């Protein structure tokens, strides 16, 4: 995905989010822009051991310092230190070796956005590495494979990179725990605020799966306030994006109901999307979505199992397939909405099964009660009932497909595991990425 807002955008005095171009790179060189905590220029992208260590250190340092942009292909002239054009050769998939290196060298994992900008003649270009502001700081990198030399936690100080001292690391951990607690509280509030909109009194809406999300970074100051057309486009794009997480042949009815005669309505610093049949109702019995201007997202879907005609099992149950499909839809809507707002960081998502205030009866998991070769819908004998589902918090550290797929699977499994099952029916296994 293109990088639509960064420190380089700010220094070039761009007023609206958009992808960077060759002209922007040329202008940055002509202006001799100075490096700082959030901007670093590199003349080359080497693959030797020292260069690998430096890349891991630079990415970890920026993640520990609020995020930033590394530009490969801009160097410094010896002597007067002014910027010079050092366009590099671009590989077909430049993000792959970078992500693999960081997965091996940096903890907790960081997945930056990597974007090539080729020159007009295709002979070379520049490589942008956008490091997100991380909610998991402090990040450590391995600066020496020798086990006697422990990993370090770097930090940016101006254009320099220093190592955190012990008290800096202690403070960073305290800040992390505070951020996590604040995020969990904000997501729970987002869920609670929407609960009053949900109708728990219909036969198929006694149980709701509500997934709330927030970006780990913020919406850029230059990002325009989203309008109704943007909201409609996001929902349409999210439907296609969600299918990439499904097994071949599976459907995405979660968003289909919201897209039927889609008519987003304005709310308090947000857009709301209802199914057509719920447009004028006080409460909703069909899927419901909120897309907030600050990047918050909420998707609610009734998951009470629909029993086939003649089924005499009256035990209350939620449908496993719906849980999986909603998880995929929520991740897709979140990423698509954040892209529309020019948010390039990851997100934190929270899944909760919500029932009516007076409903304390245990409920079961309805799905494939047979095996891999024989499908028999019903309550599987190897699952057990629950009275409540513990909320599932999932950190989506990157914006690439693999990170989103992991988040969708983690959300679904976080709910399904609480019934004692590991089986996924709709979502593709992670090894199919």
From TrEMBL:
UniProt-listed Pfam families: SLFN_AlbA_2
Keyword Lipoprotein among UniProt keywords: no
GO MF term list: ATP binding
Keywords: ATP-binding, Nucleotide-binding
Coiled coil: none
Keyword ATP-binding (UniProt): yes
Residues of the Schlafen AlbA-2 domain: 35-161
Name of the protein in question: ATP-binding protein
Originating organism: Cellulosimicrobium funkei
């Amino acid at each position: 995905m293109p990088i639509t807002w960064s420190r380089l955008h700010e220094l070039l005095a761009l007023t609206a989010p958009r992808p960077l171009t060759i002209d922007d790179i040329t202008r940055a060189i002509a202006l001799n822009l100075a490096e700082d905590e959030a901007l670093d220029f590199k003349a080359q992208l080497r693959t030797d051991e020292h260069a690998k260590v430096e890349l891991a250190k630079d990415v970890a340092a920026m993640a520990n310092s609020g995020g930033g942009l590394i530009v490969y292909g801009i160097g410094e002239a010896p002597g007067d230190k002014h910027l010079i054009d050092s366009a590099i050769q671009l590989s077909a998939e430049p993000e792959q070796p970078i992500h693999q290196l960081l997965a091996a060298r940096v903890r907790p994992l960081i997945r930056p956005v990597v974007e090539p900008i080729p020159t007009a003649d295709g002979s070379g270009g520049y490589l942008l590495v956008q490091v997100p502001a991380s909610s998991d700081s402090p990040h450590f990198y391995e600066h020496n494979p020798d086990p006697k030399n422990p990993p370090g936690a770097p930090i940016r100080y101006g254009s320099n990179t220093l190592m955190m001292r012990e008290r800096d690391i202690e403070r960073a951990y305290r800040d992390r725990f505070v951020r996590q607690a604040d995020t969990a509280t904000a997501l729970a509030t987002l869920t609670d605020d929407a609960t009053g909109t949900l109708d728990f009194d219909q036969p198929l809406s006694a149980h709701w799966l509500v997934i709330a999300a927030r970006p780990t970074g913020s919406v850029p100051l230059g990002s325009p306030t989203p309008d109704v057309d943007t909201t409609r486009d996001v929902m349409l794009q999210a439907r296609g994006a969600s299918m990439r997480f499904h097994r071949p042949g599976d459907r995405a009815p979660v968003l289909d109901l919201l897209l039927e005669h889609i008519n987003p309505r304005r709310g308090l610093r947000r857009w709301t999307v209802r199914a057509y049949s719920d447009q004028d109702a006080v409460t909703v019995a069909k899927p419901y979505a909120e897309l907030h201007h600050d990047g918050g997202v909420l998707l609610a879907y009734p998951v009470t199992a629909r029993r086939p005609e003649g089924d005499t099992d009256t035990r209350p149950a939620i449908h496993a397939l719906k849980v999986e499909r909603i998880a995929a839809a929520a991740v897709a809507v979140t990423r698509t909405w954040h892209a529309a707002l020019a948010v390039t960081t990851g997100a934190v998502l929270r899944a909760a099964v919500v029932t009516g205030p007076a409903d304390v009866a245990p409920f079961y998991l309805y799905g494939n009660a047979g095996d891999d070769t024989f499908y028999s819908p019903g309550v599987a004998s190897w699952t057990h009932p629950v009275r409540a589902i513990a909320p599932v918090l999932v950190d989506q550290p990157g914006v690439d497909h693999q990170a989103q797929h992991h988040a969708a699977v983690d959300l679904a499994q976080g709910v399904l595991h609480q019934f004692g099952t590991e089986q996924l029916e709709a979502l593709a296994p992670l090894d199919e990425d």
